[in-house]
TrEMBL record:
Transmembrane segments: none annotated. GO terms for molecular function: DNA binding. Keywords: DNA recombination. One of its GO terms (biological process) is DNA integration. Gene3D superfamilies: Intergrase catalytic core (1.10.443.10). Signal peptide: none annotated. Residues 1-175 form the Tyr recombinase domain. This is Tyr recombinase domain-containing protein. It holds the Pfam family Phage_integrase. PROSITE patterns: TYR_RECOMBINASE. The keyword Iron-sulfur does not apply. The keyword Nucleotidyltransferase does not apply.
Amino acid sequence: MMLLWAGLRLGELLELRRKDIRGLTGSELVTLQVRRNAQRMEDPDSHKQVMVSFDTPKTDAGNRDIVLPKTVSNALRTHCRNFVADGLEALIVTTTTGAAMLDTTFRNRFNPVKKAAGRPDISPHDCRRFYGTQLVTEGRVSLEEARRLMGHETVEQLLDYQRAATGYEKRAAAALDALVPPVTMNEKKTTPKKTGDTA
């Protein structure tokens, strides 16, 4: 849900901690404060793959606050109450032992879920694309506002994420139709003049 409805990069999700979440104990909408990123790297001593935390997101524009929809806010509260350790530094997404989860482990868990949903073709990053598209088509936010929520540095990056959904032609017409004031047409039938009339 967090990838679909918050548009987080996978590294941002895997580095999200209790201290980054506002509104967990209340009933208002939850706000995520995206301030860090995690990347998989090789430990120079053990030569094992580990997740390394960075104190900055992927880009400067990646520092952002995201307000979650009500349903997602409530789901995150339940998840934190049941599955997340106490303490501000506790990671929101972990392995069953409470360790930081590798992105490869996340993908291995994501694969059966996407197949069960009938979408074996999607990746975690496609969820981010979905979020960006929904912001613009359904979220009633400007391109600049959507750019900020996505953590992109330019609007052009956001536009690269856009997907043309089916039925966009009718949606565009309906949106414009709502702006057109009522028009009263003259119902009186007139006969066109014939060529050569001298009226």
